[in-house]
Amino acid sequence: MDKNARDLLDSAVLQKGLAQFGLDPGSARPCEACENFVYDCDGKIIARFTHSGHRMLEQVLSELDFVSYLSCNGVPCSRPVCGTDGRLGYRIDAGDSYFTVSAFEKARGVPPSRENTTKKVISRLGQVIGMTHRLAKSYVPSPGIEKRPHLFDDEYYLSPEKHFLEGDTEMLQAFRKNMYRCRLIGASTDNFGLVHTDFHQGNFFVEDGEITVFDFDDSAYFYFADDLAMPLFYHMSGVSENRVQIATEFFASLFDGYKKENGLGVDQLGLMGDFFALRETLLFGLIGRFVDLQNMSPDKKVKLMERRSAILSGRPFLDIDFRQFA
User: Fold this and answer.
1) pLDDT tens-place string over residues 120-147
2) Could you please report the per-residue DSSP string of 89-151?
3) pLDDT tens, residue by residue, 229-253
4) N vs C: which end of the chain shows fewer Cβ within 10 Å?
5) Cα–Cα–Cα angle for 203, 151, 248, nearest 5°?
6) Helix 224-236 with 272-285: angle, nearest 10 deg
């Protein structure tokens, strides 16, 4: 998270932003977040402050428009909340920049865990992802709302050399190669649309076998198969034993749920490996932003370098032909 933005979010900005939704600063508890400033207000409302260096007001409003559309059409997601005058987002000036303040109903339940992530929950997650893809096919931004970007218009994809670990030209080349491969995939309304892009365990809650998804901050136009691949990608990150068995069982449940809402052709399932490679090389290139490499334990550093060598040698993230699930 940008330090300059953190310094700009003082008590006056916080109070003014929360006031747009009638929220009491005394009840606002900071939550852990990567790219926004998030506050839990009385356990019912989540207030979010987005610095203009991360997203402009118009970009935030386009996200809120899409999430409102999904919510109105039955997707169990954290619904955007209107402010005191009926708007969804407010600009609060801070120095030469500003924050866009928005608010959401807090998701019901608790984060997924080993205990509550049952086959039923995994299937339900797949079904919810399928719902978002089915609805994305007919989504049209509301009047005055700008269109969300293509995933490759994100800064990490446009200028990866500015963000990747300095000097790691091999990983940068591998990432660009994977990105080029994905650019060649044909796009149609059957396989491409506005998607979440980041359906991992930190972006949904579980309660009584049901889930609520949230955080569409990175939503962009990209392939449905990539969006479906992400829960499996993050589920398997860090798993070293019985990877094929665990991944096969997880994806079988995920795709069973997905098929209840949307179809995905065998050709698209066959591209899952390409999307895993794209995400893995991106995250590995950005590792210096999220991991303290200087103070990493020797064991972790060895495992990290082993995986780096595997990535650069072309070894797949998962040795599975996903076309078998069609």
Assistant:
1) 999 999 999 999 999 999 999 999 999 9
2) -EEEEETTEEEEEEEEEPPSSB---TTT--HHHHHHHHHHHHHHHHHHTT--PPTTPPPPPBG
3) 999 999 999 898 999 999 999 999 9
4) N
5) 55
6) 60
All domains in the chain, ordered by first residue = 3-105 (3.30.200.20), 119-325 (3.90.1200.10)
Can you read off the two tokens belonging to residue 158? 């446009």
Beta carbons within 8 Å of 100's beta carbon, 6+ residues apart = 49, 50, 52, 55, 56, 57, 60, 61, 89, 90, 91, 92
**pLDDT of 1 strictly over 70:** no
Nearest to 193 by CA among 138, 143, 154: 138
The total of other beta-carbon atoms located within 10 Å of residue 288's CB is: 15
Q: How many residues can be counted in the chain? A: 326
Main-chain phi, psi angles of 118, to 5 degrees = -85, 170
Measured distance CA(161)–CA(65) in Å, rounded: 32
Residue 219, token pair as written in the block: 């939503």
Instruction: Supply the pTM of this predicted model.
Output: 0.95
As a 3-state breakdown, the chain gives helix, strand, coil percent values, each rounded to 5, of 45, 15, 40
